[in-house]
């Protein structure tokens, strides 16, 4: 099975915001809650990794 391409940082943030909006507006049913939380967790981890990588690259440039 092919691995799903990770979205760009801005796309990931937008998707996280949509998940949060559905959660806050109570549009999310209990059956999809676990899947949505898992997806949000994956997106957050991806964003953190991208930020960490960018931080390392900037630090190297500034040295």
């Amino acid at each position: 099975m092919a691995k799903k391409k990770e979205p760009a940082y801005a796309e990931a943030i937008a998707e996280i915001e949509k998940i949060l909006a559905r959660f806050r507006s109570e549009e999310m049913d209990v059956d999809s809650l676990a899947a949505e939380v898992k997806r949000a967790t994956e997106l957050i981890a991806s964003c953190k990794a991208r930020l960490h990588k960018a931080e390392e690259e900037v630090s190297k440039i500034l040295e």
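The mean pLDDT is 89. Residues 8-19+27-60 form one domain.
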